[in-house]
Amino acid sequence: MFLGREKELESLKRLLDKQVSSLVACRGRRRIGKSTLFREFAKREKLGFISIEGLGPRKGQTNADQLKNFGVRLSEQTRGRLVIPQTWSEAFDLLARRIPKRGRQLVLLDEISWMGKHDPDFAGYLKNGWDDALKHHDNLILVVCGSVSSWVKRNLLDSATFGGRFSRDLVLKELPLRQCAEFWRDRREDLASRELLDVLSVTGGVPRYLEEVDPSLSAAENIRLMCFTSDGPLFKDFSAMFSEVFGETSVMKGDVLRTLADGAKTLNEIAQSLGVERGGSLGGVLDELSEAGFVAKDTVLNPRTWVQSRISYYRLCDNYARFYLKFIEPHVDAIRGGRFEFETLAELPGWQTVMGLQFENLVLNRVMDFREQLHLNGLSIRSAAPYRVNGKNGVQVDLLIQSDEVMCVVEVKRRKQIKTEIVDEVKEKIRKIRHPKSISVRKALVFDGELPVSVRRSGYFDAIVDVGQMIRG
């Protein structure tokens, strides 16, 4: 199934109106659907399509291996004589000569960081190949795509060498919740919202994971088969994905994610937890995890001064990664040996707490999708992130949305039964947040569960969003 990505498809379609070639970058985590997007675009617009993917990392791999793969894949797809280029200059010249001169063409260089890993001059060869030959195909869209987003950004997008050459820089995020529900097809109307959200809390909005959902099975059975069996796709994917994307630095990055699995932390708190210096490589590791879509750096405006806070919190924003670290990794050997069994998901240690964090992530990762339901249309949002102040009079807000005129305090709650005390809890949080009198305060509740009628009738919340109802459309 191909769902969503309408904005990206429309943006790409506008390139077809140009009279010259286009160079496009695409970034996003593994399994997010980057390659699928361009295959679908080429299919819809009836474009010629060539796709060459770099070889995944392995011990002993060389630049010659990548060049040979490039030549073989190009020959297979263009039905031309097999030529093995000796340099990337030769490779891109060969590509330019093999692109058909008639009709619109899309060429996808997939996992570009793998392709260029063993040649420090790869980016320069690509730039020269574009300038000297490839861009002169006026019917060409050349896409460079990568899961190692930091490599794409550092070597291509932010490089002065490529200044002004990219027509698009697409960053693919997880799918909106309503589109995620469409993977259940007609069965989604028969399922309780709790079941839909259980699976989404595990998979996030990652299309490749949602493709594994069997609509005829319960949420618990889908999760068991995907996560807790030795051949389950989500049982195997974490270590494979990390080693492919991060290579030699995967161990350190995995350790950082483990420190964030129980909740967001500041840079100081992460360094203290790992027993390392807060400077040096740690900042770079967090930047790479952020670029790869695993970590979000949350910063709000200081409610007292309305100036950006100096303190940022790093949040593990990838739902699958947290679920793996909390519930799969501790039982890898037992699962592999077929010895890990449970009656219900709820009996897994810490299930309710972790699923509460997972639900919050679903909301936080899609703040703009909730904009209309929160009655924030027309406002220029300057900040949208969790807010926390430690200490005796500390306060923790699930989501604080700030514009020049409005501060919206959003309570995000997932419980079987929401308690009536939630109104008093939010009142107390707002009392502790010092803010200018010129700023209007709005209150919102985003929830999954049963909400007492008294909470709705109280009129306290300016917006109440039932996520289960929302994803059903």
What's the topology here?
Elements: H1 6-15, E1 22-27, H2 34-44, E2 48-53, H3 63-78, H4 88-98, E3 105-110, H5 112-115, H6 122-132, E4 140-146, H7 149-157, E5 166-171, H8 177-181, H9 193-203, H10 207-210, H11 219-227, H12 233-246, H13 250-260, H14 267-274, H15 281-291, E6 295-298, E7 313-316, H16 319-328, H17 332-336, H18 351-364, E8 381-389, E9 395-403, E10 406-417, H19 422-432, E11 440-450, H20 453-458, E12 463-466, H21 467-471
Parallel strand pairs: 1-4, 1-5, 2-3, 3-4, 10-11, 11-12
Antiparallel strand pairs: 6-7, 8-9, 9-10
Helix pairs in contact: 3-4, 4-6, 9-11, 9-16, 9-18, 16-18
What does this structure look like?
By secondary structure, the protein is of the alpha/beta class. 41% of the residues lie in helices and 18% in strands. The longest helix has 16 residues, at 63-78. The mean pLDDT is 93.
